[in-house]
Amino acid sequence: MKTKNIYIIRHGQTDYNLEQKVQGRGIDSSINPTGRIQASHFYDAYQHVPFDKIYHSELKRTSQSVHKFIEKGIPRESLSGLDEISWGKHEGQEFDPEMHKIYLDTVANWERGRLDIAVGGGESPLEVMHRQKTAIEYIMNQTDESHVLVATHGRAMRILMCWMLNYPMQHMDAFEHTNLCLYQLEYSGHGYRVIKHGSAEHLNDIKI
């Protein structure tokens, strides 16, 4: 396979992010004014990249985050494998100490290697990984695409980076992220090389 450059971003800020509400796969929220500014700054910084295709999740906050690229006429496709993890019955709920304890306990179990555990009837990291692998295999099989833009979500991004880079998934929190950050990878047929790691340089000039 020829070299493929993969630009993976998290969506821009939503009101759920701002208000610290649980979002997840079951909440189809929109990016907010700050998220639109972040998306605009990302576009300004990377509009020169000759993207052959855009892939985003089936949740509108990802497609909205790459809207300016779509407006340029770059082909795009939504893939459910890029959706955020499901947090089950906790989705849409406001932050509270009891819920946060459940979250921390779950993350602690993941760090101990219990990657089959899900929160509130949602998805486990292993379940997310399996659907991501289907999506990434599909993307990588498009041999006529050299530069692709992939828009996904925070926890999904951490899981994605682990298995793509052969990193132990129980340490997924090592892959830090912010809204509209970028992980840039290069694939040359023998694995993925990290070019940019959680980069948010394009957001430095934002005044909120």
Describe this structure in words.
It is a single chain. By secondary structure, the chain is an alpha/beta fold. The chain is built from seven helices and six strands; from the N terminus they run βααβααβααβαββ. It has helices at about 15-20, 35-45, 60-65, 65-70, 95-110, 125-140, 155-165, and strands at about 5-10, 55, 75-80, 145-150, 180-185, 190-200. The chain has a six-stranded mixed β-sheet with strand order 3-2-4-1-5-6. α6 packs across α7 (about 155-165). The protein is globular and about 45 Å long. The protein starts with a strand and ends in a 9-residue tail after the last strand. About 35% of the residues are buried. The model has no long low-confidence stretch (mean pLDDT about 95).
Report the sheet with the most strands, covering strand number, pairing sense and barrel closure: 6 strands, mixed
Which ranges are low-confidence, i.e. pLDDT below 50, for 5 or more consecutive residues?
Answer: none
Structural class: alpha/beta
* Shape field: globular
The order of strands across the largest sheet is 3-2-4-1-5-6
Instruction: Give the termini separation.
Output: 43 Å
Strand content: 15-25%
**DSSP E strands, number:** 6
Instruction: Give the mean pLDDT.
Output: 94
Helix content: 25-40%
Radius of gyration: 16 Å
Q: What's the number of helices?
A: 7
